[in-house]
Amino acid sequence: MVLPLVVASGLTFVAVTVKSGIRAWVRYTRLHKVDIANLNDIDFISANQFRARTSDQLSNDPNTQKHMKIMHYLHEYQGGFYPTVNKEESLLIFNFKDLQSALINEKMIKSRHRQLMFLNHPDRNGSPLLASKINEAKDILLQYYSHR
Asked: Where is the signal peptide (predicted)?
């Protein structure tokens, strides 16, 4: 007489547990990331809010400004090298700005070439293509600016 009550209570317990587990799983799968963060007391901010916050904090940091300029150039000059290096591409490779073109001399070109080759030489696991383009750019810039 006691056995049917124990079995019935056990089955009821299992059924209620499974039902609540399934309900919790369905509810969990419908939650958005923001809701999960709020349930865990985590501040969840949107990408635009993050950009606004970080741009305010990092706008005075010189390293951040340098990286932002680099990212600007990466977006502006997409693609590979020209088949033959020209003066404009040489100036880009050596990171000379248009405003500096009046100040460029042979010493500056050789100094920048040395820095770039130190970073990109094939003997130091650099790219042979990049090293050859740097050398071509140096030759072209020396043709334009060595007579000054």
From this structure: none
